[in-house]
Write a structure and sequence with these properties.
The chain is an alpha/beta fold. It has a single domain, classed as Aminopeptidase. It has 5 helices and 8 strands; from the N terminus they run H-E-E-H-H-E-E-E-H-E-H-E-E.
Length: about 230
């Protein structure tokens, strides 16, 4: 399925962030060559755009990943299985969250941990669910959509990064967090978005992480920020 122009440019932004993050992960691994020319960095992994696009297509094959649907369960099982083949440890958080209009929705957060014993950690996150309707699109109304950009593209980049971390293990701890029920909110209802992220912040997959300082790559891979849980 061809991606639209918005998804294409979003993917380009995220690939740029990937290069920066790989450089940051490898910064602490530099070694002196002994030739007097100073430290040299190890060879950086090669991010495969084709692989990332394939991950987008695999998500779209399930259809819209709307919370409370069979497509949600099927895609969650696929994401979990894919990450279990790559990460040191995979955690699956299942919870019930309350969306606007008191709708109870199943939430499935998926976390892949690399080098889980490391104290210094980098958190990478993207949401994997699809908004239930295209309310911001002209004439969209209650029409469902595939969510190639929002949020399959972010998940695809993180899956490709997980594949690279599996091939070249980072010394820094890496946690990839795929959050659910992020896009079911309403603009006029405070804190109605990001329900999966809110749940994880109160129930981190490793209890000692609560209250810790993290560096995170935000929505769509376009922002890097630091925050306290």
């Amino acid at each position: 399925m061809p991606l639209n122009k918005t998804a294409y440019y979003a993917m380009r932004w995220m690939i740029m962030l990937v290069v920066i993050l790989f450089a940051a992960c490898n910064q602490g691994n530099r070694q002196n060559t002994g030739t007097g020319t100073g430290p040299s960095a190890p060879e950086a992994p090669v991010f495969s755009a084709d692989s990332a696009y394939a991950y987008v297509e695999q998500q779209l094959a399930f259809g819209p990943r709307i919370p409370g649907t069979p497509e949600q369960e099927a895609c969650a099982a696929w994401l979990t299985g894919r990450l279990q083949g790559l990460a040191d440890t995979v955690y699956v958080q299942r919870a019930t969250v309350i969306a606007p209009q008191q709708r109870s929705l199943p939430c499935i957060n998926i976390i892949a941990a690399f080098n889980p014993a490391a104290k210094r950690r980098i958190l990478l996150l993207a949401h994997w669910d699809t908004r239930p309707y295209a309310d911001k699109e002209a004439g969209g109304g209650n029409k469902k959509f595939d969510g190639a950009d929002d949020g399959a593209s972010g998940v695809a980049v993180l899956l490709e990064m997980a594949r690279q971390f599996h091939a070249q293990r980072p010394e820094t701890g890496i946690d990839i967090l795929l959050t659910d029920v992020e896009d079911y909110g309403e603009s006029k209802v405070e804190a109605s978005y990001c329900l999966g992220a809110q749940y994880w912040a109160k129930n981190p997959h490793i209890p000692r992480l609560q209250g810790g300082l993290w560096r995170a790559a935000g929505y769509g891979g376009r922002t890097e920020f630091r925050f306290l849980l």
